[in-house]
Amino acid sequence: MQLADVPEISGAVPFVGHARTFRSERLGFLLRAAREQPEGGRLRVFGRDVFHTASPVVLHEVLVEKARLFEKSPVLRVVLYPLAGEGLFTSEGDLWKRQRRLMAPIFQSSAIARYVDIVADVVERAADRWKPGVAIDLGREMTRITMAIVGKSLFDADAFDEADALGDALTVALEWSNQHLGSPRLAMQMRLRVLLESAEGRLPAALERGRASLLHGLRGPVLLAGARGPRLRNAIAILDDRIQRMIDERRSASTSRDDLLTRLLQARDEDGSRMDDRQVRDEAITLFVAGHETTATALTWALYRLAREPPLYSKLTVEADALGGKEDFRDPARLSYAAKVFKEAMRLYPPVYLFSRRAREAVTVADYDLPRRALVFASPYSVHRRPDVYPDPERFDPERFTPGAEAARPRCSYLPFGAGPRVCIGNHFALMEGPIVLAALARRLRFDVDEGPRIEPAPFATLRPGAPVIARVQWRVDRGARSN
């Protein structure tokens, strides 16, 4: 069976197909597509057929079993290129393999353990700023916390006086990326890329050089509105300036620092080569975005749901109150319930809620023969809501993540970090950081939120809350009585 034989998802309209619905009702559309054709359905986007699946079995086939036959879709590469460049999230081929090989030792779980005290210290300092009864924006405050953590871990920066400016710059860049997903301009650029790729080996030498040059130029945004606009350009300049200053400082310093940036600069490939400044910049920006944006979003959702369900928050405080000094944060067994809460927040609200792969060559998936360059779309948001895998899927239930429950579920049914060779390199860091932040906050504070209608997720570049999460802070213990 061919791609054209895959059952089509309902609602396509002439020419644009499902693109308009995808842009205006993204999460609802992804859920509907998963309900209609969970194993495999066909989307149409400006005349192009796309294979969509919400099946853990099929996703394991694509992401793990046949991973070498797929690459990341150039769609995300184009919209993220101004921000992430050739970083690990967007690079492909030999460059990606080299960078992954260089960076893997930095992110082994044994290497990550050294940053536990940083996380605990940052949370304690953040909590000290909040006065009893004050109302805070949980999203903004979790962003400040995770930005301080990644600032210290990645850059050895004790404080980020520019935290809001950097956060705003990232938001501008990510908003721009999100705005263009599913846009006609992006579809035009992708169609042009496919035409140029298809012409490989069919042109005279002189034209082949022009084809290759033009294709290289299309690796980033060309046809997208605002790609060279002042807001985006200024946002990227702020980020570039901050990162480059720190790179320059490391290269000129006489003493070495114990941070991830230094490790990036010192990392050597098998042939002894190192990354140049531009590559270090791209990797640092990628880690900076992934290290604070996604974790901050997951923490915001976790605290919001806990605040609306006091029995669950009480269970977390019991675990948190049993912690002694900071050395207890180094023992994952002491944070087992906090880890379950964090994982459940990422199930219901996976920060990266949509991803795609492109076939490097003709490949069979779920008994369908997909041609070379066929796109496969999948959404952790909808996979995580399959009632046959997660009964009563909208219920916030951390007990879904007991060891037995996790082992009983099919592979690739939980995808907040992806799966296979391109699984998020920072997953160990996030799974260390998130539970510590939750436990450190819970043993000091309680957060009260309004009992109004539940805040729903909004498909930003990550899955942020659709409205500010305003919470009132209450101290559970006297500040002077805290354990250190």
Write the CATH homologous superfamily: Cytochrome P450
Query: What Rg do the Cα atoms give?
Result: 23 Å
Q: According to CATH, what is the class?
A: Mainly Alpha
Beta-sheet strand percentage? Answer: 5-15%
Q: What is the CATH fold-level name? A: Cytochrome p450
The name of the CATH architecture is Orthogonal Bundle
The low-confidence runs, each spanning 5 or more residues with pLDDT under 50, are 479-484
| Largest sheet entry | 5 strands, mixed
Q: Would you report the number of β strands?
A: 12
Question: Which sequence of strands runs across the widest sheet?
Answer: 1-2-8-5-3
Which range best describes the helical content: under 10%, 10-25%, 25-40%, 40-55%, 55-70% or over 70%? 40-55%
**Which geometry do the CA atoms define?**
globular
Overall average pLDDT: 88
Through-space gap between termini: 63 Å
Describe this structure in words.
- The chain contains 19 helices and twelve strands.
- It has 484 residues and is of the alpha+beta class.
- It has a single domain (3-183, 224-481), classed as Cytochrome p450 (Orthogonal Bundle), CATH 1.10.630.
- The chain has a five-stranded mixed β-sheet. A three-stranded antiparallel β-sheet has the order 4-12-9.
- β1 (41-45) and β2 form a beta hairpin.
- It is globular, with a radius of gyration of 23 Å.
- The N and C termini lie far apart (63 Å).
